[in-house]
Amino acid sequence: MTDAPFAPGFVERPYWWDAAPPPVPPVLPLPDQVEVAIIGGGIAGLSTAIELGRNGVPALVLDREAIGWGASSRNGGALSGAGSLGKVRSDLAEAFGKEYVAELMEEGEQAFESFEAFVTREGLDCDYARCGRFVGAHAPRALDVLKRRIEMINAAGTEEAFFVPRERVAEEIATERFYGGMMLRRAGSLHPGKYVRSLAAAAERHGATLRGGVEMRGYRREADGGFVLETSQGRLRARKLMIATNGYTGGATPWHRRRLIPVASYMIATEAIGEERVRRVLPKLRVYGDTKKVLYYFRPSPDHTRILFGGRASFVNADTRRSGATLHRFLTDLIPDLADVRITHSWKGNVAFAFDMMPHLGEHEGVHFAMACNGSGVVTMTHLGQAVAQTMLGGANRPSAFARLTFPTRPLYTGHPWFLPLVGLSYQLRDRLDGWRVPRKDSA
């Protein structure tokens, strides 16, 4: 493989970790007994711990890796509210009913507003900016899908989405590949590494104990409703238990694992090209996506000097050097003005999809959970974590509408998505039938 896409000093790790690397887990003993044990030290788990701590309930957060090591510090840092619900399926009203979907949309919009207030209240240092989101239509037939999404979003009462005709796409992005698009005003961006680091600091400030490098290997429920956890550092007891492992859910929680489809998502960061050139290709400095089945998502870096670009570079477990070359090819095909720009970082992380493509929270046999962000995790998992905490506290004024969703699985599915390569081929075929063409591999 040619080294043409790779800048000197190229590394296979998240760009976000340059400024906010996951902390080295301390080797410290675990308490024998805790009020609440949270498994998963990402956005959902830390948000739960913060909300519990604000209400006087200290939590223990365990993660088999460093706190924040997973998708929470690897994602694209693009944020939206209800707009993310229609991203992966356009038949919400038909599937769940108009009244219920209206509840979900309203909660999604409120979650975004609450997120902004949460960042301010906790003083989270995460480079947050409300910048808006542009979603490009990859084919003419996608225009009708976008228009339905716009109607659904605006029906929530916010009137924050509008259609962008093809002749105005250049005002948003320097490409001729899109046939129009959707603009969401109620959307933003942040630095994922800094966000999860700030969440961890806030959780500790509110009384939580954080322990990375500790794996939960199993648990059992006791007669009094509490739990005994078997961990890599011994046994402990917890009155309540929450699972917030999402795309990294393992065999210790098989019921949850059977309901999640872990999918690797890949990203690259370009070399620094300066704000002037970034603005030439992304004039409004928003966050961006498209309507393809094999979608792209991209944005400027927080300092506006680089382009960060992500997508499904592979539906098998590809190495990040190869996926980096693939994403570079996708980027330069979409925005030809970047053909001479090399990349400095390439990485991947697991997102978790549910079979119904919806976020889920709830309780199963006494175990609380918040899972399945379906590729839109920052606002979603912050909100679901807080909602789980309110449920544990028994003080939710209005239970989350998402808690009423059945969490489906499929017969014989055990959490190993053997079918992903087949799904990937079908998605690629559907995109090609829509008229989308990807450049040849030998052009990299």
UniProtKB/TrEMBL annotation:
SUPFAM superfamilies, alphabetized: FAD/NAD(P)-binding domain
Superkingdom to which the source organism belongs: Bacteria
The keyword Oxidoreductase is assigned to this record: yes
Record's keyword annotation contains Oxidoreductase: yes
GO CC term (a single one): cytoplasm
InterPro entries to which the protein is assigned, alphabetical: FAD-dep_OxRdtase, FAD/NAD-bd_sf
Record key words, sorted: Oxidoreductase
Residues annotated as domain FAD dependent oxidoreductase: 36-390
A GO MF term: oxidoreductase activity
UniProt feature coiled coil, ranges: none
Protein name: Glycine/D-amino acid oxidase
Organism expressing this protein natively: Muricoccus roseus
